[in-house]
Design goal:
eight-stranded parallel barrel, two-stranded antiparallel sheet, about 260 residues, 12 helices
Length: about 260
């Protein structure tokens, strides 16, 4: 791995080998998501607690301060919406010139293994890796499942994660599953970060699955809605950071949340 690649990854993955990524890219297919209508205002109080932001180029340019920002993971796939026929029918939306111009730490692309567009999205990933390797830019693969939520089980996730790593992703973002998540991580030769998905019912639910995922080998998390849609987003961010970087368990993190949300 060359110097540029190592340098960019070191901005994302902290010295303790863990990371807390905050995604705010939801608008690329959902439009003005609740609590994310004004992304810059939403994330401002959360910046001290996350390690990087996952964001589109439009929001990056229009809403984020270039002189006071966390490292950026740039969302570079899209082309579909909630109103369309199939969220899996994505293409690459951002050129390598644009990626370099924005000086990002990494890029992110979704793959839809098992969908009608499996081949197309895997080729998106391969093409992106081919281009980004020339510039020392890491690629994060996102193992998306679209509306087919039943695919969030270990056998499917292990398949998707391994394929992403085989195609050259340096980090894989995937969903946590209650059973055999350790096998998902063990079968992936690059670091795995846990995705949040839809907002959970309680804060303790979030903290428990994050703690379990970390205990089973994930190096960190990339949670958005379960943070900034919480009535107390800063308290939630502090609690999650305690699990990721301070070795807190779910109950200890929940006490942090309750203390911060009073």
């Amino acid at each position: 791995m060359d110097w540029g690649m190592k340098n960019r990854l070191s901005k994302l993955i902290q010295p303790d080998r863990h990371c807390f990524f905050l995604p705010i890219d939801h608008g690329y297919f959902q439009g003005p998501t609740r609590c994310l209508e004004k992304p810059g205002e939403t994330i401002k109080p959360l910046l001290p607690y996350c390690d990087a932001l996952f964001v589109t180029r439009g929001v990056l340019r229009s809403c984020l301060d270039p002189t006071n920002s966390k490292p950026i993971i740039l969302r570079v796939s899209g082309g579909t919406s909630m109103a369309g026929k199939d969220l899996a029918n994505e293409v690459l939306t951002t050129s390598i010139e644009e990626i370099v111009r924005l000086n990002v730490a990494a890029v992110g692309v979704s793959i839809f293994v098992g969908s009608d567009y499996e081949k197309e999205t895997l080729l998106n990933l391969a093409e992106l890796v081919n281009k980004c390797e020339n510039y020392g830019i890491p690629v994060m693969a996102v193992t998306a499942v679209g509306k087919e939520m039943e695919k969030r089980e270990a056998r499917y996730l292990a398949l998707a994660c391994r394929i992403a790593a085989e195609l050259g992703a340096k980090v894989v973002k995937t969903y946590w599953c209650e059973k055999d998540f350790d096998k998902v991580v063990e079968g992936c030769p690059v670091p795995v970060v846990v995705a949040g998905g839809p907002k959970c019912k309680t804060e303790l639910d979030v903290l428990e699955f994050v703690y379990d995922g970390m205990q089973k080998g994930a190096i960190g998390i990339t949670l958005g809605r379960n943070v900034w849609q919480n009535p107390h987003p800063v308290a939630m961010a502090k609690a999650l950071r305690a699990i990721v970087h301070e070795n807190a368990n779910a109950k200890e993190a929940h006490q942090i949340f309750k203390g911060e949300s009073k």
